[in-house]
Amino acid sequence: MKINLSNIKKAKNLLFNSECIAIPTETVYGLAGNAYSDKACKKIFTLKKRPKNNPLIVHYHKFQDLKKDCSFNKNFIKLYKKFCPGPITFILDLKKNSKISKFVTNKKKTLAVRFPKHPITRNLLKRLNFPLAAPSANLSKRVSAVCSSHVKDDFGKKIKYILEGGKSSIGLESTIIDLRTKPKILRLGGLDFSAIQRVLNQKVKIQNNPSKISAPGQFKLHYSPGIPIKLNIRKVKDDEAYILIREKKIKKSNYYFLSRKGDLKEAAKNLYSTLRKIKKNKHLSISVSKIPNKGLGKTINDRLIRASKF
Ligand code: TXA
Ligand code: MG
Question: Residue 55: CB within 6 Å of ligand 1?
Answer without folding.
Answer: yes
